[in-house]
Amino acid sequence: MNILKTASRWIDNLNEWVGRGVGWVTLALVLVIFVDVVMRYLFNTSYVFTQELEWHLFAFIFLIGAGYTLLHDGHVRVDIIYQRLGLKGRAWINLLGVIFFLIPGCLMVMSTSWKFTVNSFMIMEGSPDPGGIPFRFIVKGCIPAGFFLLLIQGLSLAMHSLMQILGIETENEKES
After folding, report:
1. In the predicted model, what is the mean pLDDT of residues 101-113?
2. At what angle do helices 48-64 and 137-165 cross, to 10 degrees?
3. For 71-97, what is the HEC assignment?
4. Around Cβ 4, how many Cβ atoms within 10 Å?
5. Confidence class of residue 166 from pLDDT cuts 50, 70 and 90?
6. Distance (Å) of CA 81 to CA 46, 89, 150, 158, 164
7. pTM of the predicted model, to two decimals?
8. Measured between alpha carbons, how far is 6 from 159 in angstroms, rounded to an integer?
9. 7-64, pLDDT tens digit by residue?
10. What are the helix (H) ranges across 43-71?
11. Which of 38, 68, 103, 121 places its Cα 20 to 30 Å from the Cα of 152?
């Protein structure tokens, strides 16, 4: 069980670190949008590069930050039953949800997006628009990378849930 605790702690720390980095990218997105709005409404001009940068940063934030969101239980869920259950009941739902939904979903997205990303890299895909962002493969690479971070955070959640079911870990221990 020490191996499970060590592995889940390592994954949690990784996604915590990644999530803090994504927070800074969020600040960058706000600044880029601010510049775009100022340029558009005060100077009556706009750049394709700026507009594409907005959606590239937005995609990066949501894809790479998904594991961090799961770590902090920030994903949307229907709590009609879940909220009424005790620690072990919630742990069972989390464990089964990871096994039957999260893992297969992440593996499917990772396996289908990998070739898409590699192909984009091989042709050095860039924006089809003049003045757009080159190296579009970078944002496409965020798809398998983000789902990998989500997958390993799901595995950590499964480990925490299993330890809670077995009575080895309490809810408060997970947070420390």
Report:
1. 98
2. 20
3. HCCCCCCCCCCHHHCCHHHHHHHHHHH
4. 18
5. very high
6. 49, 10, 24, 19, 18
7. 0.92
8. 10
9. 999 999 999 999 999 999 999 999 999 999 999 999 999 999 999 999 999 999 999 9
10. 48-64, 66-71
11. 121
